[in-house]
Design a protein that fits this description.
The complex is a heterodimer of chains A (397) and B (142). Chain A is an alpha/beta fold. Chain A has 10 helices and 12 strands. In chain A, α1 crosses α5, α2 runs parallel beside α3 and α5 runs antiparallel to α6. Chain A is elongated. Chain B has 142 residues and is α/β, with parallel strands linked by helices. Chain B has one domain: Rossmann fold (3-Layer(aba) Sandwich). Chain B contains 6 helices and 5 strands. In chain B, α2 runs parallel beside α3. The longest helix of chain B has 13 residues. In chain B, 43% of the residues are buried. Classes of the chains: A alpha/beta (397), B alpha/beta (142). Chains A and B meet through α5 and α6 of A and α1 of B.
Chain lengths: 397, 142
């Protein structure tokens, strides 16, 4: 079954009604057409099943008691044919037990006779909503599959590229042993090999962080934390990088910006935002970091005076492996996982992140986290036993 | 002494270019570099390469194919059409897998492929094959 590839006709949803009672067929048609649906009616199970196969309806309304193929039989065959068709059974009071039976075998709901037009409309709408959710769930599942496949390709490429570069340096050195030109470059190449090794290590650390978040082991600890000292210590570790890039860093970090979360997690979050602000800046540029508490939230803002992010790329910003190009078309070193990590951490902590960016002027990221309400005490990560997740492996770089 | 073999490397990985450059220079080649497909195409008139080493995945995952197609088929590059193009990638993926629309494949199929990292003796031997009369594999490093 592939819902996305179904060539369902454009237009309103289609309801197929199977009932041996002509008056019932007529009134169902009238009621449902009035609500803007397409309706096809059939008088027995055989014709009805043929129609389901042909028309691929969204919802099937079927009478349980019919001569020939019974309603129960119709349900089980439709289930085999296309489990995404949502089935509603119509039944007389005498056969409520059968209706329950029908629902056990896959019908979504039942409508006891006699029913009012409103009841039919209501139940059909619920069935259509159910149908919409099923289609949506399937679509998301397909999307995830695609993403997973793409992930594998990217991962292998991103690991292979530096490995191939390192291998090739060593191989050429070996091949050209004794060649003065190559010997002269030996030291420089060793440094490049080291740099590429670092790149791979950082990539792997980032993946571990991501999968830790996915496994929900990262933000296990929920304690009251003040953002100010955490961010301040991150700024300290980023100083050498900023100096090397000639970036000045200013901060406004008043104490008392209390939130609830895992200190290590918050550190990773701040580190990623601040190193990005330095990396994607201009020489002589500025990074401003501030925290404040306001309206039940604490807000961490990291602003740079860098290259900015063109509007059309902003929606990809938090995607895995997305990286902003510099104006000359090159990319900064990195795997494109930093902001993805940030977004997941923010989500995990119950907050959200905003971005303001102007090409050539700079970018500001604002992380909104729920403020600690005062009743949050150290909530042990140990509540759940057994899980051997630590935050030791979190990328510090 | 014969004219040196002119080789243009189009690749976005500076380390790959650095090591291949040394290898080829040790064989007496004259090496030119371009960081992107576009830069490579722009440099053709200046470099007049005898051979092009072309990375597959640069900015996009198939940029190399676009460059190859341009060189082999676009009128403005007609003068360079016969230059052998060697496509290089760390991921082994035939164009048939990448672009499952059969008809046009011949337009982008490179003269041959090599994988990253290069198997140096095999790489040099294959250069000998596409550059008739020029022996790179046999010559000792200078």
């Amino acid at each position: 079954m592939n819902l996305l590839l179904d060539k369902r006709q454009e237009g309103p949803p289609l309801v197929v009604v199977i009932d041996d009672d002509a008056a019932m067929r007529l009134s169902c048609r009238k009621i449902l057409v009035k609500t803007g649906l397409r309706v096809e009616t059939f008088e027995d199970g055989m014709q009805g099943l043929d129609a389901v196969a042909r028309l691929k309806p969204d919802v099937l309304v079927v009478d349980l008691k019919m001569p020939g193929i019974s309603g129960m039989e119709v349900i089980s065959r439709v289930q085999q044919m296309d489990p995404s068709v949502v089935i509603v059974v119509i039944t007389g009071y005498a056969t409520i037990d059968t209706a329950v039976e029908a629902m056990k075998s896959g019908a979504y709901d039942f409508l006891p006779k006699p029913f009012s037009p409103d009841e039919l409309r209501l139940i059909t709408n619920r069935a259509l909503e159910r149908r919409r959710l099923m289609v949506e769930a399937r679509r998301q599942e397909l999307e995830r599959e695609l993403l997973k496949r793409r992930f594998v390709t990217f991962v292998s490429h991103q690991l292979q590229t530096p490995l191939a570069a390192i291998h090739q340096y060593l191989n050429v050195l070996k091949h050209l042993e004794g060649d003065p030109a190559a010997e002269a470059r030996r030291r420089e190449w060793f440094d490049r090999c080291l740099a590429r090794t670092e790149e791979m290590l950082s990539l792997i650390r980032n993946w571990l962080t991501l999968s830790a978040i996915e496994g929900q082991c990262l933000a296990r600890q929920r304690v009251r934390v003040d953002l100010a000292p955490i961010v301040a210590s991150v700024l300290e570790t980023c100083e050498p990088l900023a100096e090397a890039e000639e970036i000045s860093v200013e901060s406004d970090l008043p104490e008392g910006c209390l939130t609830v979360g895992d200190p290590d997690c918050l550190r990773v979050l701040a580190e990623n935002l601040i190193t990005n602000a330095v990396k994607y800046n201009k020489p002589g540029g500025r990074v401003s970091v501030s925290a404040r508490a306001s309206g039940g939230e604490v807000i961490l803002a990291v602003a740079d005076t860098g290259i900015g992010i063109p509007e059309q790329y902003q929606r990809f910003l938090f995607d895995e492996f997305f990286r902003v190009k510099t104006p000359n078309g090159s990319k900064k070193p990195g795997a494109g996982l930093g902001l993805c990590i940030v977004k997941r951490i923010v989500g995990e902590l119950g907050g959200y992140i905003e971005v303001d960016s102007q090409v050539g002027v700079g970018t500001t990221f604002r992380v909104h986290l729920p403020a600690a309400s005062g009743r949050h005490e150290v909530q042990a990560a140990q509540e759940e036993t057994g899980a051997a997740c630590t935050t030791e492996d979190i990328d510090r770089g | 002494m014969a004219e040196p073999v002119r080789i243009l490397i189009i690749d976005d990985d500076p380390d790959f270019k650095a090591s291949v450059r040394s290898l080829l220079e040790s064989r007496g080649c004259l090496v030119f570099e371009a960081d992107s497909g576009r830069e490579g195409l722009e440099k053709l008139p200046e470099c007049k390469p005898d051979l092009i080493l072309l990375d597959v995945m640069m900015e996009s995952s198939s940029e190399g194919y676009g460059v190859n197609q341009a060189i082999k088929w676009r009128e403005e590059f007609a003068a360079y059409r016969n230059i052998p193009v060697v496509m290089v990638s760390s991921i082994q993926q035939e164009p048939d897998e990448m672009f499952p629309m059969a008809g046009e494949l011949e337009m982008i199929r490179p003269d041959f492929y090599v994988r990253k990292p290069l198997d140096i003796p095999a790489f040099l031997a294959s250069l000998d094959r596409v550059l008739p009369g020029r022996i790179l594999s046999g010559t000792e490093p200078r």
